[in-house]
């Protein structure tokens, strides 16, 4: 009786190794990160999914919240992950490296899905996830649909494109190397933060923003608390003078948390603003 649990665990590990070695599609996939959660839910067959992270069911963060509520959820604790007996575990570059190392020592197949900060990286991640899940055709279809939607956008203009900027609570903006930057360009805008040599997420003072003369100011509050703070910040008289009819336009923050097909939703939203 005491030997049954170790024997069962050993058998599971052997089956996991064999599945990996022979290239069969995984049957018990566990994700411990919101970004891999979303691609997993969008690409896998439901019966392939053993668990997603608890963040996947939060509608303020996740585009697959309703589907995720029907799935087992985890908190990335080693005991619960081993109990789930995954034949593939999906993580991110921000996952605890000690946890991933321990899981690999137990014989688990761990795959890290890179962070995506532009369209090419998003598509590479979709392709990688499709290969990992044995869902290459579904992944390619997703990429083709994204490309078609982007191709349908008319970003023609006379002269140079109009300038826009993201302005967040506490005065942060999104420069080079961010999804916001990539989305602005694809939607037909110039990113004034990038033109000011800002990389990543950095603060920008109000005077510098006003001198840039943006045609549109976008903001993406992280929470309702940040939304009220952003509203107070962006009601500054100088900003209202710059754009008296509407000082800023809100784009949901969850568009920027992870790269995926939802990125095209954000590009389309930015493009609609350009058409006004």
Automatic annotation (TrEMBL):
- Superkingdom of the source? Bacteria
Q: Where is the Fe/B12 periplasmic-binding domain?
A: 28-276
Any matching Pfam family = Peripla_BP_2
Know the name of this protein? Putative vitamin B12 ABC transporter, B12-binding component BtuF
Query: Organism, per UniProt?
Result: endosymbiont of Riftia pachyptila (vent Ph05)
């Amino acid at each position: 009786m005491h030997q049954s649990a170790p024997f069962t665990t050993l058998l599971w590990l052997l089956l996991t190794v064999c599945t990996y070695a022979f290239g069969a599609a995984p049957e018990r996939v566990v994700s411990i990160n919101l970004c891999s959660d979303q691609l997993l839910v969008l690409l896998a067959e439901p019966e392939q999914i053993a668990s997603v992270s608890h963040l996947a069911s939060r509608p303020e963060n996740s585009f697959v919240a309703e589907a995720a509520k029907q799935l087992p959820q985890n908190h990335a604790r080693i005991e619960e992950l081993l109990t789930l007996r995954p034949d593939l575990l999906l993580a991110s570059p921000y996952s605890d490296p000690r946890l991933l190392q321990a899981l690999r020592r137990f014989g688990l197949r761990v795959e890290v899905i890179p962070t995506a900060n532009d369209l090419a990286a998003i598509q590479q991640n979709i392709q990688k996830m499709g290969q990992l899940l044995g869902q290459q055709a579904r992944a390619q279809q997703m990429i083709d649909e994204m490309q078609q939607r982007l191709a349908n956008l008319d970003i023609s203009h006379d002269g140079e494109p109009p300038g826009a900027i993201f302005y967040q609570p506490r005065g942060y903006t999104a420069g080079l190397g961010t999804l916001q930057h990539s989305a602005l360009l694809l939607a037909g805008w110039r990113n004034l933060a990038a033109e000011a040599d800002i990389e990543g997420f950095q603060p920008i003072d109000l005077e510098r923003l006003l001198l840039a003369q943006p045609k549109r100011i976008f903001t993406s509050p992280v929470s309702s608390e940040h939304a009220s703070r952003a509203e107070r910040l962006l009601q500054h008289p100088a900003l209202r003078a710059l754009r008296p009819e509407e000082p800023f336009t809100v784009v949901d923050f969850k568009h920027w948390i992870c790269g995926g097909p939802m990125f095209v939703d954000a590009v389309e939203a930015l493009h609609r603003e350009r058409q006004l």
